[in-house]
Design a protein that fits this description.
By secondary structure, the protein is an alpha/beta fold. It has 12 helices and 13 strands. The structure holds pyridoxal-5'-phosphate. The site of pyridoxal-5'-phosphate (PLP) has 14 residues, from α3.
């Protein structure tokens, strides 16, 4: 045995972890004395279904007991809602947990995972944490490009992530393009379709990916209760996956990764179809209203199939994204800065309730009408 160098004098995290820039959640702080209106994390302005609150109220007597490790009640409720086989559903503490588990299970040191230029930052963090290399496929017009992904596939590629529709761009890929990607990828590459916003899409050239999963061994679809179901605080996600992938996830997940509150709340939420319809109707009403009014103020509003809008500030006469963000924060309006996604001229705005939406439009209109703020103000 050779002992060239002395061992380090403290534990060393795996290489790659030092390249991770920790995920920064949407901000919650505003100017003192101003009521905060959070429009930075794509949460539901309607909140959860009343059925969820009723289910949670009954929990008290059961808190001493471990929850069902298989989260059967939740998986069966999801299966009923979408006509799926419950055995092919795995739940996670948010879809974040599933995205992380999938990455760690299928990619490691020496492997590559393909993500896209403006892809959700969680994919990159998960790949680096697993010791794998993130390979970035450029997008075209802020939209995932299938040919750019396929051009980056190598023998080392193990996993490909796309969000459809995408965060933070709001753009989407038609089903035909997703199917083309799925069919062109080598069989050993796992394609992860992150459908966190699928419930908001009403186009008929879109599908979340259930059929692709049903007919392939290498496609997984992830979903979340954090957006249209208004349950971000409870951390509930699920995936529909090939049987072999479910088996892998069930081996590596924490034995009780779904807590009792999440199981009960999720089962109640998924059954309340009327509440989901109300959340969709709200979004259908206010997203175009926001887009139209913000466009009138001179802001570029990118097309969106989600519950948020990506806004591009003109940047002229001091009307840039950083100045707009400061201006809105003075009024308690918290949007998401996009610097971490390489879009420093943009802000992301979640569709809020009526009061919030009207305040946002007024604020942007005042900001765009105001003269440039002095430098270093
Ligand atoms: C919000 C979001 C999720 C959901 O994450 P959870 O962990 O389920 O809260 C997943 N993917 C994308 C792209 C998102 O924007």
């Amino acid at each position: 045995m050779q002992h060239d160098a002395a061992p380090p004098n403290r534990p060393q995290a795996r290489s790659g972890i030092d390249r991770i820039e920790a995920y920064v959640p949407g901000s919650t702080s505003v100017a003192p004395g101003v009521r905060a209106i959070k429009l930075s994390s794509n949460e539901s302005p309607l909140g959860p279904s009343p059925a969820v609150l009723a289910a949670l109220a009954d929990l008290g007597s059961e808190l001493a007991l471990y929850p069902d490790g298989e989260a059967k009640k939740l998986r069966q409720a999801i299966a009923r809602r979408y006509g799926l086989d419950a055995a092919r559903i795995v739940c996670g503490a948010g879809s974040d947990e599933l995205l992380t588990m999938l990455t760690h299970a299928y990619a490691g040191p020496g492997d590559e995972g393909i993500i896209t230029q403006y892809g959700f930052l969680v994919y990159k963090i998960a790949l680096l944490a697993a010791g794998a290399s993130p390979i970035i496929a450029p997008e075209v017009d802020l939209t995932v490009n299938v040919d750019a992904i396929l051009a980056r596939v190598t023998p080392r590629t193990k996993i490909v992530f796309i969000a459809n529709p995408a965060n933070p761009t709001g753009s989407f890929l038609p089903f035909a393009e997703v199917a083309r990607l799925a069919h062109a990828l080598p069989r050993h590459v796992l394609l992860v379709l992150d459908a966190a916003y699928c419930e908001y899409v009403t186009r008929n050239d879109y599908a979340a990916g259930l059929e692709l999963v049903a007919n392939a061994h290498n496609v997984v679809m992830t979903r979340t209760f954090s957006k249209i179901h208004g349950l971000a605080a409870l951390r509930i996600g699920w995936c529909y996956a090939p049987a072999e992938v479910c088996d892998v996830l069930n081996r590596i997940r924490g034995p009780f990764n779904m807590n009792k509150a999440a199981i009960e709340a999720g089962a109640a939420a998924i059954a309340d179809v009327d509440h989901q319809a109300a959340a969709l109707a709200h979004n259908q009403r206010w997203r175009p209203w926001l887009a139209e009014n913000l466009t009138s103020s001179g802001i570029e509003v990118l097309p969106s199939e989600t519950n948020f809008l990506l806004l591009r500030l003109p940047g002229t006469a001091g009307h840039d994204a950083a100045a707009a963000d400061r201006f809105l924060l003075q009024r308690g309006l918290i949007l998401r800065r996009m610097d971490a996604y390489g879009l420093p001229d943009c802000l992301r705005l979640t569709v809020g309730d009526e009061v919030a939406n009207r305040l946002v439009v007024e604020a942007f209109s005042a900001f765009m009408a105001a003269p440039a703020e002095p430098a270093h103000a």
